[in-house]
Amino acid sequence: MLVLTRKLGEGITIGDDIRVVVLEMKAGQVRLGIEAPSDVQVHRDEVYAKILDENKQAARAQPAATEALKHLGRPIQAEAKRV
């Protein structure tokens, strides 16, 4: 982990296109501004952890959903052959 000290208004650059700037410091909190391309996802750690958890849950549920969809498709295919 790289540890840096920055003052109000100072920032850091990550790669060629991500910039993090210290916008405000008060009451033990630091407010950061993040400039990044729209295709780069930026999340707070707790939000990112929830996204990962939901993705894992969805992946576990997928086999059952896939089986249900297989059964739904069979009658449609059979009817299509009759027409």
Topology overview:
Layout (H helix, E strand, L loop, with lengths): L10 E4 L3 E9 L2 E7 L9 H38 L1
Comma- or semicolon-separated keywords:
single chain; 83 residues; alpha+beta; three-stranded antiparallel sheet; 24% strand; elongated
Note down, in words, how this protein is organized.
The chain has 83 residues and is of the alpha+beta class. The protein folds into 2 domains: 1-40, no CATH class; 43-83. It has 1 helix and 3 strands, in the order βββα. Strand 1 (11-14) and strand 2 form a beta hairpin. The longest helix is centred in the last third of the chain and has 38 residues, at 45-82. The model has no long low-confidence stretch (mean pLDDT 86).
Kindly summarize this structure in a few lines.
The protein is α+β, with helices and mostly antiparallel strands and 83 residues long.
Topology, number of strands: 3
What is the first-to-last residue Cα distance?
65 Å
Mean pLDDT: 86
Instruction: Specify Rg, calculated over alpha carbons.
Output: 24 Å
Topology pattern, helix = H, strand = E: EEEH
Share of residues in helices: 40-55%
Spatial arrangement of strands, main beta sheet: 1-2-3
Estimated share of beta-strand residues: 15-25%
Query: Structural class per helix/strand content?
Result: alpha+beta
The number of distinct structural domains comes to 2
Dominant shape: elongated
The major β-sheet equals: 3 strands, antiparallel
Low-confidence stretches: none
Helix count from the secondary structure assignment: 1
